[in-house]
Specification:
CATH architecture of the largest domain: Beta Barrel
Radius of gyration: 39 Å
Strand content: 25-35%
Structural class: alpha+beta
Shape: globular
Largest sheet: 5 strands, mixed, barrel
CATH topology of the largest domain: OB fold (Dihydrolipoamide Acetyltransferase, E2P)
Number of helices: 9
CATH class of the largest domain: Mainly Beta
Number of strands: 25
């Protein structure tokens, strides 16, 4: 009996155990790996990637596009040159053999680049571009210019030639291409940059400069550009402190004495020192109509423009003039003050011009060479004995027929440089007219090739005495 009870209890426990397992997964049910049911926001959070720190892109590799080989055996023209004068960022005058240019000078305009203006017109980053070119070529031990094809090609002016400029210094093994170097430094805007033998390199250099936002692509103000209003001053103040006003916009009054070759000379008398002070003013091709009329000889004018050093001539000048006809009283305009004035043509001794010195009082006393202060003013010199004459004979030069007359007075040598002089019948006056004569001259004090001279613009300003 007891055994039966034990068996019955065992069977009952077994049945209860089987009933307790009824919530378990049946062996025939499908098992999934998906998430258990949740609300929408919980599911989104679960499926989102784990948050990480933002990653910055690796900076693009900077390529030196100017460092490619000059192929000396290509079919282009090539010539080793030296610098005669720096003009601006994309224009340099080079000394070349006469078989390249009869005059011995090639006026080079750089291919593929157009740097901001820094001569007649002053633009942002123009000074930086000009100084960049000067720095690179001044350090060069060798400079080679290269044509784009098999000949030297003139630009649209007819007087400059389009070239690639290559240079190397004592530390370099190979030449560098200056045109491309200017582009990759963001110091020029494209100028037919893709349409030349190095077009792909030029366009890549431009793209990199833009991506790096260099200089003209920076969107930033040029630290060398003067953004302020014109500084009102006298010609005396300007001439005696000229370097302090370099790159600045200035305004001054003076009488126009000569109008020649897209520029005028302006002078003003200072009662305190008893001297005339003058300035060369370049208006270029930016004026017409009333603007040009204002600059007529004999007019007293108010000049407003930017001060700059004209490297090709070794002199200072004021440029970037403007005239807005619809706003004649605009303070940035040049303006006519009066008419009927005469050039001073101050009678000056040869010894005074060449050897004289002047002390000018100011915050501190400064001593100047007389000729330095007289630059741009009108003078008269008498009794100059002609000892030698050189006439420009280059057929391609606009100065063909102009003369450099070497004279002597009281043992002092004075150089007189003329424009192309015409007689009453409009024939060119030749050197035979003045050879071995004694002459009186009226002209403007000028500077050329390291020396002061008198520049004469018309035949009536040279009088033969004997």
């Amino acid at each position: 009996m007891n055994n039966r009870i034990s068996i019955l209890i065992f069977l009952m426990c077994l049945m209860l155990a089987m009933t307790g397992c009824s919530d378990s997964v049946s062996p025939t049910e499908e098992i999934t790996s998906g998430p258990t049911e949740t609300n929408a926001s919980e599911e989104k959070e679960t499926s989102a990637p784990v948050e990480t720190q933002p990653q910055t892109e690796a900076p693009a590799k900077i390529v030196d596009y100017a460092d490619f080989k000059l192929q000396m055996n290509s079919g282009t023209r090539k010539q080793e040159v030296t610098v005669k004068s720096f003009i601006d960022g994309d224009t340099v005058h080079f000394h070349v053999p006469e078989q390249v240019m009869e005059s011995g000078v090639l006026k080079a305009r750089f291919l593929a680049v157009n740097t901001p203006e820094s001569t007649g017109k002053i633009e942002e980053y123009g000074k930086a571009a000009s100084e960049f070119t000067k720095e690179k070529l001044s350090q060069a031990t060798s400079i080679i210019i290269e044509s784009d094809d098999n000949q030297w090609n003139a630009d649209s002016t007819g007087g400059r030639y389009l070239v690639w400029v290559w240079y190397k210094t004592a530390e370099m093994t190979d030449y560098r291409n200056l045109n491309v170097e200017i582009l990759q430094n963001g110091l020029a805007i494209p100028s037919s940059s893709a349409n030349n033998r190095y077009g792909s390199t030029c366009t890549a250099a431009i793209a990199q400069a833009r991506a790096q936002k260099l200089n003209v692509y920076s969107g930033q103000k040029d630290p060398d550009f003067y953004y302020g209003e014109a500084v009102e001053l006298t010609l005396r103040e300007l001439r005696t402190n000229i370097e302090a006003y370099n790159g600045m916009k200035v305004a001054f009054n003076g009488v126009v004495t000569v109008n020649n070759n897209n520029g005028v000379y302006v002078e003003d008398y200072d009662e305190e020192t008893g001297l005339y002070y003058g300035m060369s003013v370049y208006y270029g091709y930016g004026l017409s109509g009333t603007g040009l009329d204002i600059l007529s000889v004999g007019n007293e004018v108010r000049i407003v423009g930017s001060v700059q050093y004209y490297a090709a001539g070794g002199t200072w000048q004021v440029s970037d003039l403007s005239y807005r006809m619809m706003k004649p009283d605009d303070p940035s305009n040049i303006q006519k003050i009066s008419s009927g004035n005469n050039a001073a043509f101050k009678l000056t001794e040869a010894d005074t011009l060449i050897n004289g010195q002047v002390e000018i009082e100011g915050e501190t006393a400064k001593v100047f060479d007389y000729a330095e202060l007289a630059m741009g003013t009108s003078v008269e010199m008498k009794g100059l004995k002609v000892t030698d004459i050189y006439t420009t004979v280059d057929e391609a030069s606009s100065s063909k027929g102009a003369m450099t007359i070497t004279c002597e007075a009281d043992g002092i040598t004075v150089t007189v440089r003329t424009a192309v002089l015409l007689d009453e019948n409009q024939n060119v006056i030749t050197e035979d007219v003045y050879r071995d004569k004694v002459i009186d001259v009226k002209g403007i004090v000028d500077y050329f090739d390291g020396a002061y001279q008198i520049k004469v613009f018309t035949a009536k300003n040279i009088t033969i005495i004997e």
